[in-house]
Sequence to fold (192 residues):
Amino acid sequence: MKNGKILIAGLALGLIPPALAGTPDQASQRILESRKIVKQFMGRLKGELQRAMKAGGPVKAIEVCRNEAPAIAGEMSQQTGWRVGRTSLKVRNPNNAPDAWERRVLQDFEARKARGEDVRKLEHAEIVAVNGKKQFRYMKAIPTGRICLRCHGAKLDPAVDQTLKQFYPHDRARGFKVGDIRGAFTIIQPLD
Ligand code: HEC
Fold:
């Protein structure tokens, strides 16, 4: 029943192509759906970030990351019935800290990157059991781009540095270089 509801929500959103909704290959269908959610999330966030950077510079843009990122994640979670978020081995906001499973996947992404895999393509999907309840879980790595260095690089503008310190006294999301894995999108779909 729950699955049905999620499917319907997904269909209404245009996340699941109707042709796929009825096929037996549920796993690949969930992966396709996850990729779409991530793409939408990333697209919206990047758009807002770039607009804010242009309009008010990085200090103003901190507000986008601080308010819009969790808001978009919450909105997408509500629309899909899936839990959507961002995490990292070095978080800025402790609310984004990885759980044990996410930490293992992030470490595995680092190992795969070290073996030469393309960071832009790193993803992992798995069905896991938590307290006897099955969940579909999906993660996709987020590469560090040039624009990210304004707030996640080694050398920050003093005003950016000050503002970040004020909001995030335990900030660990600094010192990144272009091409590093900044973190990952993470999705949970309850299955029963
Ligand atoms: C204007 C400053 C700014 C820029 C530019 C920026 N970020 Fe962030 N980033 C933040 C802030 C602030 C947070 C904390 C958001 C929160 O409170 O949830 C954050 C959080 C994150 C997180 C969630 C994990 C964590 O550390 O808490 C990820 C992943 C992330 N940023 C990736 C990126 C990527 C990738 C880019 C470049 C495309 C980028 N950021 C550019 C300010 C920025």
The pocket of heme C is lined by residues 49, 58, 61-62, 65-66, 69-70, 86, 88, 91-93, 96, 142, 144-145, 147-148, 150-152, 173, 182-183 (CB under 6 Å). The longest helix spans residues 26-80.
